[in-house]
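It is worth pausing here to work through a concrete case rather than discussing structure prediction in the abstract. The textbook approach is simple: state the sequence, then state the predicted structure, then interpret. We follow exactly that order.
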Amino acid sequence: MANEGAKAPPAATPLQGLIPGYPKLSGRMGIVPEMAIFRRFGTLNAQMLLYMQSELIHLEEELRELELEDSRSKQPYKSKYSRDCFFLYNPTTKGDDRQLRLVLKIKAKLKEYNKALKLQSALTSMPEPSKYDLKYLQGYMETREMGPFIMTGPDADIWGSLDEPKSHAPDLVALQPRHTEDPFSNWVTGTGMKIFFWCGGHRRREPSPVHGMVVYSNSKLLRITYWITSTLASLLPVSSIIILYRVRSMLARLTVIAGFNVIISLCLLGFTNARRSEIFAVTAACSGGIRRSQWNERDNRK
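Step two, the predicted structure:
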């Protein structure tokens, strides 16, 4: 999603032909896919699954009873149902097709149940919307372009409001959630851009004819953060070696090593998505490398 700022002139607004309400809201969601936030209806979906499950249990019990009854039948044809499905799918008379009709009914119900089960599994794995996108949607619902407060149905409070941002429905999902990066990149694309717009940094940029306002692509912002983190990653080891080369006291050197370990750990926390075990491993490796380089330098001096 692009970070948005000042609005474009009315002629450049892409949604000017849509009336406020569902038409304009859906148009905005189409332009900004991260705004496509809906309820998962987890409770209702689970309830429908429970109904279908209960119905299938009853049908299963009925099938087992009918299978036992047909297996004990004096008619040789019906007693073969459990051993050869050809006889089950080709009954001799109309009255002998009870088990077949029940099997076909169960087959249809199972298909419906399995499909619903898979969809529910997919729904439960869908991510929640980011706070930034949800707040953006809440703000859009209260803009002059949207009404504001044009929605009057029971679904008007699904996303909450700027006054009560946490009053949204508890089971919201995002169709295209914002891609999460490291904490530093997330800060730049979120809070950092808010500060940038607030300071007027967007005034020299022309509004987008598609979004109707000034936009900055997240991909470009993430490229900048990548350059920053890459530069920092290459400078830290070099700077530590240079500083240690200038320090003569062993106590001071140990203090510098400890300080750089803390700095490296903080950088891993802020500029990467490293796990705790990875942070410990990288910190230990860097510390060991710095110490070895210093011992080699001391030996060379001798």
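Step three, interpretation. Residues 221-301 form one domain. The first strand starts at residue 3 and ends at 7.
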